[in-house]
Structure to design on (254 residues):
């Protein structure tokens, strides 16, 4: 592979430095709404522009798909990028947001990185080789009981025109688990599954750039990634990541 995890980390951390420059001066950052519940800031645009230019110049054999700029011509082998996952949190000065970069070759995710600059937490994975947090191997939790589990979810899909808006599902899961969390960045939520900080995460109506890197990291850390029926694979419209040990207990509530 013409790029190593170390080379990818250098690029992603540079992108994080750009994001932090904006984050530390939010009062002067332009914040707009793409739709009633989707935000974009000048930081999203700047970070994606840096990643697109840097990655495509250094690795021209790969195409690029970014949340803000869309897709280039080559999408068989491509970078999949969310420049700031958790833009709303970012715009409010909260720390839980991340930069997500994945490399997909022939429909196989082969490398992924999720960086939370405000927390200085860096997660990465390579297909078949494991997952790491801040340079150390990371693994999913050993929790086997759903009732003792902490579960994360998100409500990005909470739209007035959707009958399935995750509220009923959240209500069912909350009654059968000890703790529930809603952090605001799907990429980071998946990394928290990989790191054992939460035992499972689910969300709906996402896009591949929201979950590609984080899903690979969760899988390489020993977790499962399925849809709500338990089918293995990355399904952004229905993604359920678990430590593997509570999957069968959680699926009936989905």
């Amino acid at each position: 592979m013409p790029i190593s995890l170390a080379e990818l980390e250098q690029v992603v951390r540079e992108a994080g430095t750009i994001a932090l420059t904006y984050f530390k001066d939010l009062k002067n950052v332009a914040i707009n709404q793409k739709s009633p519940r989707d935000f974009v800031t000048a930081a999203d645009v700047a970070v994606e522009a840096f990643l697109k230019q840097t990655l495509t110049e250094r690795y021209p054999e790969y195409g690029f798909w970014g949340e803000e700029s869309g897709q280039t011509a080559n999408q068989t082998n491509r970078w999949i990028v969310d420049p700031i996952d958790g833009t709303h949190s970012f715009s409010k000065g909260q720390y839980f947001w991340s930069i997500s970069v994945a490399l997909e070759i022939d429909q196989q995710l082969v490398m992924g990185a999720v960086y939370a600059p405000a927390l200085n937490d860096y997660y990465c994975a390579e297909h078949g080789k494991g997952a790491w947090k801040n340079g150390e191997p990371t693994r999913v939790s050993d929790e086997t009981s759903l009732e003792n589990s902490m579960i994360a979810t998100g409500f990005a899909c909470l739209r007035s025109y959707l009958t399935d808006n995750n509220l009923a599902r959240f209500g069912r899961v909350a009654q059968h688990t000890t703790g529930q969390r809603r952090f605001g960045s799907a990429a980071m939520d998946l990394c928290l599954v990989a790191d054992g900080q939460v035992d499972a995460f689910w969300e709906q109506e996402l896009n591949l750039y929201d979950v590609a890197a984080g899903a690979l990291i969760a899988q390489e850390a020993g977790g499962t990634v399925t849809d709500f029926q338990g089918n293995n694979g990355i399904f952004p419209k229905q993604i359920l990541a678990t430590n593997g040990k509570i999957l069968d207990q959680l699926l009936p509530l989905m």
